Amino acid sequence: MKQYLEIKSKHPDAILLFRVGDFYETFSQDAIDASEILGITLTKRANGAAQTVELAGFPHHALDTYLPKLVRAGKRVAICDQLEDPKLTKTIVKRGITELVTPGVSINDNILNHKENNFLCAIHFTKNICGISLLDISTGEFLVAEGTKEYLDKLLGNFAPKEVLLERGKKKLFEEYFGSRYFTFELDDWMFTENAANDRLLKHFETKNLKGFGVSNLNNGVIAAGTILYYLDSTQHTQISHITSLSRIEEDKYVRLDKFTVRSLEIISTMNDGGKSLLDILDKTISPMGARMLRRWLVFPLKDEKPINDRLNVIEYLFKHPELKQLLEEQLSLIGDLERIISKVAVGRVTPREIVQLKVALSAIGPIREAFLNSDDISLKAIGDNLNPCADVRDRIEKEIQNDPPVLLNKGNVIKTGVNQELDSLREISHSGKDYLMKIQQREIEATGITSLKISFNNVFGYYIEVRNTHKDKVPAEWIRKQTLVNAERYITQELKDYEEKILGAEEKILSLETAIFNDLVSSLDQYIQAIQRNANLIAQTDCLLSFTKAAEENKYIRPNVIDSDVIDIKNGRHPVIEKQLPLGESYVANDVKLDSKSQQIIIITGPNMAGKSALLRQTALITLMAQAGCYVPAESAKIGLVDKIFTRVGASDNISLGESTFMVEMNEAADILNNISDRSLILFDELGRGTSTYDGISIAWAIVEYIHEHPKARAKTLFATHYHELNEMEKSFKRIKNFNVSVKEVDNKVIFLRKLVKGGSEHSFGIHVAKMAGMPQSIVKRANEILKQLETDNRKQGISKPITDITENREGFQLSFFQLDDPVLSQVRDEILSLDVNNLTPMEALNKLNDIKKIVKGK
Questions:
Q1: Are residues 854 and 784 in the same domain?
Q2: What is the CATH classification number for the domain harbouring 182?
Q3: Rounded to whole angstroms, how far apart are CA atoms 559 and 541?
Q4: Which H or E run includes 513?
Q5: pTM of the prediction?
Q6: What is the distance between the alpha carbons of residues 599 and 738, in angstroms, rounded to a whole number?
Q7: Rounded to an integer, what distance in angstroms lies between the CA atom of residue 112 and that of residue 107?
Q8: What pLDDT score was predicted for residue 752?
Q9: What CATH number does the domain containing 97 carry?
Q10: Which residues contact 128 (CB under 8 A, 6 or more apart)?
């Protein structure tokens, strides 16, 4: 316990798995936590006369089963192993931490999701510009950037790190900016200094400066990157030769998608259970590397015309060459997770089976390279040029490692025959042992006349002869009795002991020789790490392009015309996700949308609930995003002028935990949009302003649309879906605002949704019809119709003829036309309520006051 407490004191915030013999044990609070998370038994053990200590453990070979559960529960886990053979020491066994596994630092397959990166993130805060660095130790990808808190928020949302490192004392500041959904860990402030970071990075990369990585001017980002390497040191992850470069995230290369947009367009995940995201529709990838890269491509669409068209050219080429497409499908299915396998080589955690998978992957790259070099597409030729089948490595693995080795090296039979002469002769001894034992058994049966005599082996006393009790009187005197069973006796002989030493010695030597040959092979792979990482990246790109091709073929997408202009012109566009979820036999109603900066900059779309306004907005953004990710799109034709930012304000959601109402959330998001727009932005507003009273909402919506239209430098293309029919008046005063509505047909007092976008505004919202369809009680539907007629009669003469600034003058009378307060009794009720001191009112006083108000109303 003294040894345990000493090691635990160095990692007080981690669950310590303490190796004792064949078990990993946890003690005290760790045992209580582990038993709850893992569902294992919690026991108590006396620890001296003074106290008992809680205890919970599991067999050491079950580590891969239990470790992921602890990490997924957000725990840091320190693994403490025995550092020497207990047989060779007479004192307490030497123990030490061999690995500290945290949510952001893991290379265990059971913890990692093969379709997602597992990023560890570090953030360095300064007053204006913050630095951020991201590392996936399982792939070796190391990224750095710096920017405003808004930009960091976007990166955190898109990269979704599993753990964030902060300077001690900065956690509150982090949560204030980015929320509390991330797993954070605080580090000493000395790690967050420029000198310390530079020293650690230069030591790792063995360079004189960081200029070669293009990051030397990102001081805050470099500090964050250095912090990550120090953290790897402290968690005992020192074998990191697969981290071969530091890349900057180039903000100006990608379309800006903030976290609201990624969430509301449901690009990666859905807001509702059972729904489908854009990723679900487009992800036809075969390899894990491809799946991870595709996520990145969708949240980081490109802004530059050439690389977009390069991707589109490849898709077109694959469409025209089905034989190449088929070859890619066959070869990619053989490659597996090349990126993570080569990382395991670097950290010395690769298994024999993974080494064979590496050979299979390198063999599969050969035909792909050949096919690309013979293609007519420039991009495919370039990929072919850069692919390296690493023939030397492939051939050496083929020559030395069995084709179907065990997962674990210590199970033996990993190395092929003919690789090492000594190994072959030892195997001969080991394998001929069975024949030798059979000979001894046959000889002894003949010598003693005991026909049921048999020779067996167990771990306690090795080889033995078992004789049934009926024959024990025939046992020779020189045999030594070792064990008595119910029906038999077990004996050993000097001959068996000598043979056992020879056999077991051979097996130990075989294992040590196999281990040495295997480790030599693994260390020889170090020089190929960069080449194989490059292969993995190129294969991932190929997989993504093939995935886009298959999605386009399956869903009848077309090639968009992506050009450097300010026009978005989509003919018969469809929503890529909704069209896949329609009931059988129902086809999606396609729509045209045209936006530009000169004649139709802002489209105001009115129409009833359920008519398809939101779907139309989202499909326009998704088609634009897909085109700029280099994917074919669901439309008849699409001319996409490059956009630099896509903003959405779609759907209402409270953020009650932070004390923000629907309206506050809505205004925050709208403010973020208006402060960041440019003439190349695409903005989608859906029902803006509905979180407040009608005329407040109309006023804000009008003012926002007016601002976007009148902005001298930023004529952002905007789709504005609204229920406020008053906004249709804007078309008369502003030349680049156009009214459209999603049409419906009213037949026999029933509404048929045509879902077609047509020119002109809409007069009705048909909200009461929708309520009726939802199963609202008849009495409520009837009463709602009566109130609607009354309101329409009262307000018909008061359209928006005044400027928007005057619209709220008579707001109270306007909005509350059937709750007029000029009635003296209602005024009295209002005064009673206003005079209440709610904070100091007891429940009984509140009930009495309610009773008084009831009497006033009854008196009326």
A1: no
A2: 3.30.420.110
A3: 19
A4: helix 494-524
A5: 0.80
A6: 9
A7: 7
A8: 65
A9: 3.40.1170.10
A10: 148
